[in-house]
User: Fold this.
Amino acid sequence: MIELAEIHRDFLVGDQVVHALDDVTLTIDSGEYVSIMGPSGSGKSTLLNLLGLLDRPTSGVYCLNGQDVTSLSDIEQAQVRNREIGFVFQMFHLVPRLTAAENVELPLILAGMLPERRKTKVAVALEDLGLADRSHHKPDQLSGGQRQRVAIARATVTEPRVLLADEPTGNLDHKSGTDVIRILEQLNERGITLIMVTHDPEMGQRARRQLRMMDGGLRSDVLSSDHIHHGNEAS
Amino acid sequence: MKLHSPDIAWFSWGALRGYPTRTLLMLTAMAIGVSAVVVLTSLGEGARLYVMDRFASLGTNLIIVFPGRSETAGINPTTMMGETPRDLTLNDALALTRSYKVRRIAPINVGSADVSYLSRSREVVVLGTTHEMLAIRHWELSQGKFLPAIDLDRASSVAVIGSKIRDELFGAERALGKWIRIGESRFRVIGVMGSEGRSIGVDVQETIMIPIASAQQIFNTSSVFRILVEAKTRETIEPVKQFIIDTLQERHQGKKDVTVITQDAVLQTFDRILGALTYAVGGIAAISLAVAGILIMNVMLVAVSQRTAEIGLLKALGASPRQIIMLILAEAFMLSSLGAIVGFLLGQLGSWSIRYAFPDLPAYAPAWAIIIALAVAVITGLLFSLMPARRAARLDPVLALSGR
Assistant:
């Protein structure tokens, strides 16, 4: 479903060209659970942004669901982003002046959906994440774990096929972090493709497929057979 | 993908309310800009109207008609035949009231006559005229009333005397209601002229005014010496002049035997001063508009820069560049129209205070200035948010979100 072919992404810093991504070729199938690990500056965030159509490669081809999305216009890319991709961020990035429900509603508003349909979808999304009683709370009235769950509800309310998570537990304590990762994994079990960037090995090793990056390139691509995720499922 | 307008309004209004300090600061800047335009132009326009009013009181809209045609070149049949020009009559004067461009007319007759009260007597300039004369010449009375508004051809034994005459004939005695003798007739004094007659040429304080029909009886004439015509506005002077010439030519069997003069030299000066004042008001308006525009521009630039994180998020959620521009423009529109309205009200309050403090100054902001001020506020608000909005739409969402 995701096919990256010979992707390069160069940044110009001063006079110097920095190769943030250097010849990355990668295929991710629908429903996979992939973690991307690596030290900071290794290009993992750049890769995630590229996958999320927030950035364009300098060269190379990115096919999403068989469609070459690198050649799409900004507007078309925005549409794909809205429909196919959900983002979960380390800093949650909820709009502070909006309630939980309104935050979840945002992508539906941008999609041009009518209010009645939006309300139902938002209610269902919040219910699924156990936030029904928090829907009218502002972000600052919610705990970190609750905020991240609102962010997940917002990322999934449009029923995207790919969920991109950038250090989703980085700002949470261990317990809420584990909660959040479980929710993401449950979504993955229901069929969503989950791609998570982290530099926390404990989190990263839960994924079925683990990618390691270094200096803009993929250094290892490991399919783990006895990962913790399955262990959790067994218990 | 299409944003629904209620959603745009909801989101933008929420953004304005969500950051009250920022919104308040921007509204203040916008309001100051707009109110500055309103107050300054009202001040300038007030000064212009004040000067215009002062000039009008000098009688600049005045046209003077007298019999006889003064030719500057050539010899016309009238002079050849030695014919005296036809006199002006009261009916001629009456005919001149028929144009709506004429505000008022006053025919006059002048002569001198012996005036006496009891044993005191002296020779005085007697002015036969009408009720309208007071307004035309912007005279003021110090006591009593001016000549009554009666038909031109009706005589009436009433007189208005100059203050100097009053002093000479009556001394400390009360003049109002007393009977004086002018020539062979008796007149009752009904008014005394104020000491501030703003007339040029005639010393009002040394004249006696009586109804024109009475003056014609005293001087035994049916003609009129001059007709003063006041045009409605400065602009109608020329058409009124033409109207007078045409009307009198028609009444005088096609002969152009009257002279019509306007106060050209005064008028030219008047025009120059007014022109300068108009430019000054325009300049004041332009400068204050420019200041307001720059103020609004800065406000908008700051407003959008402060929202980069939110814009980055919207992009990540699938907002297209066009949608982001839309949302920012909607916000800018709300902000600038609200600011413009507040500024307009503040400005009106300001010019009201000026009028309150200086009642002589008609400090009303001209409609064009208000319309331009409001339009400039909204348009610069939109225009200068378009630039940062486009920048925001192109923003790298990753950088925007991370706040790096």
Remarks:
- Residues 96 and 247 of chain B are 7 Å apart (CA to CA).
- Residues 264-305 of chain B form the longest helix (42 residues).
- Chain B touches chain A at residues 1-4, 6-7, 11, 14-15, 17-19, 309-310, 312-323, 396-398, 401-402 (CB under 8 Å).
- Chain B has two domains: 5-55+270-402, 62-262.
